[in-house]
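Researcher: Going back to the complex we discussed earlier. I've cleaned up the inputs and rechecked each line, so this should be the final set. Can you rerun the prediction on the complete assembly and write out the structure?
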Amino acid sequence: MFESPQDPRSHCRRLLDELLTMSVEEIDSVHERVTRTFSSQSISFTLYGEDEVSERIIPIDCIPRILPASEWDVLDAGLKQRIATLNHFIVDVYSNCRILEDGVIPVDIVKGCPQYRIEMHGVQIPLNAPVGVCGTDLVRTHDGFRVLEDNLRVPSGVSYMIANRQATKANFRRIYRDYHVREVEQYGRQLYETLSEFNPHGNNDPCIALLTPGVFNSAFYEHMFLADEIGAELVEGRDLLVSDGFVYMRTTTGLRRVDVIYRRIDDDFLDPLFFREDSILGVPGLMHAYRRGNVALVNAPGTGVADDKSIYAFVPDMIRYYLSEEPILENVETYLCRFPKDLEFTLDNIDKLVVKPVGGSGGYGLFLGSRATKKERSEFIEQLKADPSNFISQPELALSRAPCWIDRQLEPRCVDLRPFILTGTNSRIVGGAFCRIALPKDSLIVNSSQGGGAKDVWVVDF
Amino acid sequence: MLSRSAQGLYWIGRYLKRAEHISRLMDVQVAALIDRPLAHIYFGWARLYSHLGISSPVAALRDWSEESDGWGLADSFTLADDLTFTRTNDYSIYSCFEMGRENARQIRHCVSSEMWICLNRSYFRVREQRIEDIWTGNPQQFYADMVQDIHTFMGVASSTLYRDEGWDFLQIGRVIEHAQLMCALLVFQVTESENEKYGDLEGYDWWSLLHCFQADEAYQHYHGMKIEPNKVLNMLVNDVRLPNSVYFALDQICSRLDELGDAPGNRSGATANRFAGRLTSIIQYEWPDAEDKKRMLVLLENLAFRLHEYISSAWFSYEIDDTVRL
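Model: Rerun complete. Updated structure for the full complex:
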């Protein structure tokens, strides 16, 4: 919000003025109303502790984050460029492997990646768009936005983006109108249109199902929300069956053919005949139906190969390779510990770096060198040396901070930004994003699964 | 509609009806603690536990006598806690709300936002209280509020839920639970009223039932002040004008099944429909002249359980082989 302590950014001035006219009680009451909206609708995220599972209401902060449209439009172009590249890459590695033959990326990084699915080799991917829904994490540092990671499997958070907007809009009515904020509510319609484009049967009214692992999944609220938004059935594996190469769902009037599945289950659990045979969440025979082109799966299996943290480091090269363009959005500087030079650098500077497991997500397994004790550091170094190819390191970033209403006062907290990109026959991005907050003071971890909060993002035509 | 969603709505109806039923009986029971003789209190607890088919956390079965407290005042706090807030008792009001909400959570997109908010509020209200919180104040008010919450939920459902088959399954679940619990309750009532174990209950056992099911005013209006067990029984079983009678519930099931029409497993769908018709005809044509009312109630209770199985195999878990592909 501020360029420097006394100097608010020009597009934030109006919001700041509004806040300054409000008393502590008034802001507190807005905050309470916004929070109540979330709790009365149980807008939740399930946390898995060591001993117990708890359904946690996402902590929402009532103060919106404001981004000027000029800045957003750069992000929009950069994200579209990036997803186009990643889709090229995925289609390529499951067909001709041109990028590997040309030596742009080492073969072993791709084919040794745990998310590389040999079962996808030779599969004709509908629309050449294996990633229909992507959530890309961006962070702003002192020199602008950078991509922290691409989530290409089952990215979550979009429902909180919409719920945040509904709650915030209702409580800052006047200023919302004054700001001409870009809408996010059309996300549901855009998602429906995108999914419909994948329909392999060409019928006008495709039967779309959202496949969820079930009520115990962390993002179950989101699955319900999205199914409702797009008018799809929210199905679990047990609701579906494969017969004669087609997928059907069990309804009260008989078996109904499913044309498109927006799956929110990891690859491993999709089909016990192809992947993990102990999966009870998936549908036996689903991959057969998919390979025969009788059902579309969005996102396609195997997309995780492109959001592996080792491969992330090569995305700028991929952009140059496939699109012959320079990347609009830069990566965070990344060291692949599989390379001796990078490993040496990481070990020498471990107190200044963040080390992440390459296949990890949700902030699990992350090592923050500057926050670790001597003992923790030496233990982690042993772990790193034992399996260096499993880790990457990045500098600890000075994340941008945004004012949040905490304990009845405005406090700065680190935030990131996750816009969602939909890709069918073309790419679409709504003007807004899921903004995650690291709630504890001085924390850098924003993940919902690690207790992070959320706030609304206003893209304003300022 | 997805079979699992239909099943979820059906069980929401069942669990909330069960919570309402227990709340009503608890309301009468905690009122009895104020001024009824110990025999009445013991009878009330025995009636609650026996007809639900569960055992009490207090000594398995104590023999009642005038001298001993039996299940009397001393144990009432524990028993009320067990039937209201105990998480491990599937029949506690808390558990019924929890399971109703859990079903709603799994099929959240099939219930209206208003229904979800309403159910969620009630659930959190029960979850955040303890028996100590209500016991020293006015426990009757708590149980009355629970009933009120469920009525509000059904009212909200009635005003906001789209009238597709989901609505029918919600209603079927509600009334089938009511029919089963009422039959079980009346079996206990008829059995124990022939028994002199509790001494003279002075009509309390029958009056309290009328009161539980909002039939006391109608009874007084049509039959006067004198409590006659046969008249009470007839009213609760086959009075077509009493919304809480067994007949009324079964008649509603028939209407809903008619609305639903054929099930994917055609044979079982038609069977469920015929079966519900058979139950209503038993009450309509056999009940009035039946000599052995208890036997008839046991039959109705068993048939109501079977009706649940027919509905389940017709719409929720039908065989795939002979099913229509749409």
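Model: Worth noting: Chain B is about 70% helix and 0% strand.
Researcher: Good, that matches what I expected from the previous run.
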